[in-house]
Amino acid sequence: MKRIIAFTGLAVITAIVLAGCTSYVDHKRNGGQTPEKAIRQLESIEGVTSANFKTEAWRSDGEGGFLAENGMNLELDIVVSPNYKVVNPAKFLNFISVTAWSINDKYPKGALNISLKGGVDGDTDWAATVKSLFPSTERVGYIKSAGKIAIDTNALGKIYGEWPAAPQTTPSGLIVEGKINAGPGFEFEKASSDKVGDQVCLNVLFKRATNGNEAYSGTINLGLQNSAGTVLTSQQLVSPKAQSLICFPSGTDLTDTSNVRLTYAGEAEALYSTVDEASRINPIFLR
Q1: Residue 198 has pLDDT above 60, yes or no
Q2: Could you tell me if 42 and 33 are in contact, meaning their C-beta atoms sit under 8 angstroms apart?
Q3: Interstrand relation of 68-80 and 21-22 (parallel, antiparallel or unpaired)
Q4: Final residue in a domain of this structure, among 153, 177, 201
Q5: Is the pLDDT at 8 greater than 70, yes or no?
Q6: pLDDT tens digit string along 136-176?
Q7: Domain boundary residue, one of 177, 203, 232
């Protein structure tokens, strides 16, 4: 009787340990299409310079190895020519997502991560676009710091059915010739006062931004003005660093710093369209 009880207890413990670890299994299935065929289809779209696909294994150890999990992400990178633009971001995202879901390579478990270089305006709200296509509780969204769209594979299955999906015919008019409004390519972070000799200066901090993985390489025009709009000083920064220093002219009355503001505007180069300076004037009140 004691042996039976001991064996039963061991079986329960073993079951609990196994339940706490989720192993990845590559479920082979028929259907879909090969990665090579899918890439040829994507690169046949006018305006697409290149497309690349790969699977990438991942592992999460959980706490102390308990509840450890692993899987296989799908990675899709697409580059659009600077002379072309995506007509409808939602329609384009829907097509490239179902195309990735149709690739019969390794069984997907985790996320589809999409990197799109060029082709869309800088102010495109990818987070809202993704949510509109995949309105689920799964992890979907836009990782701004990485410039990637992330869609949980469970969300893909709910919309497109079981993996691998049947290949779809390429819709017409996804991309057309045209220039994108790429935005300024930089973000203002903050300004803090500093004393340099007998001058009061400002340390101006910028968050470096990118468009299609290319760092901003244009100019930023900084200006200091009082509440009446009188320009006290200005400075142009070419390929600005993350931190720049701008000083008030000697003798400038700064007794009421709440009435002094920093304005900035950018003019872009390379893949960036010219930024309308008037629309980029954002007053930062110094206190």
Answers
A1: yes
A2: no
A3: parallel
A4: 177
A5: no
A6: 767 888 887 677 899 999 999 999 999 999 999 999 999 99
A7: 177
- What band does 267 get if pLDDT is binned at 50, 70 and 90? low
In this structure, the answer to whether residues 168 and 256 fall within a common structural domain is: no
For residue 268, the domain's CATH number is 2.60.40.10
Structure tokens at 259: 């009435």
Q: Is 9 a domain residue?
A: no
Domain count within the chain: 2
Same domain, 140 and 19: yes
Instruction: State which residues form the domain around 26.
Output: 15-177
Judgement on whether residues 269 and 169 belong to the same structural domain of the protein: no
- What's the order of all strands across the beta sheet hosting 186-196? 186-196, 199-208, 243-247
